[in-house]
Specification:
251 residues; Fructose-1,6-Bisphosphatase, Chain A, domain 1; D-Maltodextrin-Binding Protein, domain 2; 5-stranded mixed beta sheet; 32% helix; globular
Length: 251
């Protein structure tokens, strides 16, 4: 399906993402307060305030419903087309002032990513993917995936979500795969990992059990940049397994 006025919808999301990102960058001290914490995860005031700004901006100018990390569905039946919002991807990094985090807004049709907007507010980098036109940009400059075709020459980005299987067998398999790559990076932000693949800084991003709001915008950007975004095994809580690649490296 081709969505009319997709550029208009993308512009709405860009405005929402940049407003939220500026709030997060300019008010980190006041927003860096824990609202909820577990053994492997943390939620900050920043997540809540950022999501409020994004949802208000989208609702004011777009007719599509919203699935957001903190507040869930804006209506019971989201329909075929809706926004997917992660108000702060990389919360733990933000909490410790590690400059790898972002605002992530995606638009999906029947769970297929058609547009992605990711604002890396620490570096003032705006990544945009229009999957209808297969165009991906960073700060309005075109980006594309790498031409690396072998793992031994490539960079893998991965992570360990808070519900990761830490059994000996699972970790042994993870380490075995890591040994095939030239370099491996764990950066703490699925959305930024996708941007790195889309812009050729990394060659593959793989992670199990991430949430759909972590990766939908990134999936659209990767595909728009010429890569492949595989999303599988979605459960009722919107957790998925993902593999984003430059399409050249065999997995």
């Amino acid at each position: 399906m081709k969505i009319n006025n997709l550029d208009k919808e993308i512009a709405i999301a860009i405005s929402a993402a940049t407003k939220s990102g500026k709030l997060l960058s300019e008010n980190r001290i006041s927003l860096n307060h824990s609202m909820e914490s577990s053994a492997k995860d943390i939620k900050l005031k920043a997540d809540i305030e950022s999501e409020f700004i994004i949802k208000r901006a989208l609702s004011d100018k777009s007719n599509f419903p919203i699935l957001a990390e903190e507040s869930g569905k804006s209506q019971n039946d989201l329909g075929d087309i809706f926004w997917v919002v992660d108000p702060l991807d990389g919360t733990a990094n933000y909490n410790r002032d590690i400059p790898i985090c972002c605002v992530s807004i995606g638009l999906v049709y029947k769970m297929n990513p058609i547009a992605g907007i990711i604002y890396d507010f620490y570096n003032d980098d705006l990544y945009v993917g229009n999957n209808q036109e297969k165009k991906a940009t960073r700060n309005n400059e075109n980006i594309s995936i790498s031409n690396i075709s072998e793992k031994k020459e490539g960079i893998l980005v991965t992570g360990l979500p808070h519900q990761t299987d830490f059994s000996d067998i699972a970790l042994k398999n993870l380490i075995h795969d890591m040994q095939l790559w030239k370099k491996v990076r764990m950066i703490g932000s699925a959305a930024m990992a996708a941007c790195y693949v889309a812009s050729g800084k990394a060659d593959l991003y793989s992670e199990k059990g991430v949430f759909i709001w972590d990766i939908i915008a990134g999936a659209a950007i990767v595909e728009s940049a010429g890569g492949v975004a595989k999303i599988s095994d979605q459960n009722k809580d919107y957790q998925v397994d993902v593999l984003f690649s430059n399409s050249l490296i065999q997995t």
